[in-house]
Amino acid sequence: MHLLVDIGNSSIFFGIEDNKTIVKTYRVNSDVKKSADEYLVTLAPLLKKYPIEGALICSVVPILTSAIKKGIQTLFNFEPKIMGFGMKTGLNIKTDDPKTVGSDLIADSVAALQIHNECLILDLGTATKYLYVGNNSLIGVAIGPGVAVSTKAMIAHAALLPNIELVAPKKVLNSSTIPCMQSGIIYGFASMIDGMVDKIREEVGNPKLEVVATGGLAKLIIPLCRNHIKIYDELILSGLISIFYKNL
Question: Could you tell me if residue 223 is left (phi over 0), alpha (psi between -120 and 50 degrees) or otherwise beta?
């Protein structure tokens, strides 16, 4: 068995892989204030029961990379691989500076290209990312603020707006503050995604371009979109499996 780890700004996603299949997943909150020992206390009861023989870490939070790496070393007595520039991925990165492309975007792209020869990936996390891939290449990217980030910013800069739960109200137009905010955020993001999908399809000249979605907020937003978009909860872990085996 092997351990795949996706360290994001909001959460850390763990996948236990056996024979190239994810058999169990865990998700814990990202907290840069936690020490390696504190993470070890969290990880030990979740992971120690598995006969883990290798691990691959994909991270966009460097300060957490070292803490999780140390925890895995302590638990299993081996050094996990860290995704970085120069690692074999099988992906051609067509950007101005491939070294600056996040490892999460690379893993998403590798996984999506195993599903479709050409597609648009929507990754709805701390940021909202649109990745256009095709012919084994990451061709173009757009990045915007995520749902939670936008919500926090609005509340922080509007003194009279309360904290709210991110759920979709039954109607778009409402008559009290909380559902009005929920509607503007949730339906607003769904409409933005539909608009971006339309624009990207037009730009790449493929009106039937397949679209897949992943990320912690995909299940909240994607069902409200008018475009057909399939959700893959474990897309990044599937990409990490492929990359892990390419680098044995």
Answer: alpha
DSSP state at residue 14: E
The CATH superfamily holding the domain 2-85+240-246 is: ATPase, nucleotide binding domain (3.30.420.40)
- Whole-prediction pTM value? 0.94
Q: Is 61:69 a contact under the CB 8 Å cutoff?
A: no
104 is catalytic: yes
| CB-CB contact of 125 with 8 (8 Å) | yes
Q: Which of 6, 104, 108, 123 is catalytic?
A: 104
Q: Which two tokens stand for residue 214?
A: 């992943």
Domain boundaries, the chain: 2-85+240-246, 116-231
Per-residue pLDDT in tens (0 to 9) along the chain, 248 residues: 999 999 999 999 999 999 999 999 999 999 999 999 999 999 999 999 999 999 999 999 999 999 999 999 999 999 999 999 889 999 999 999 999 999 999 999 999 999 999 999 999 999 999 999 999 999 999 999 999 999 999 999 998 899 999 999 999 999 999 999 999 999 999 999 999 999 999 999 999 999 999 998 999 999 999 999 999 999 999 999 999 999 99
Q: How far is CA 102 from CA 78, 83, 84, 92, in A?
A: 25, 10, 9, 14
HEC sequence for 30-80: CCCCCCHHHHHHHHHHHHCCCCCCEEEEEECCHHHHHHHHHHHHHHHCCCC
Please indicate whether the domains covering 2-85+240-246 and 116-231 agree at the CATH topology level: yes
Which CATH number does 116-231 carry? 3.30.420.40
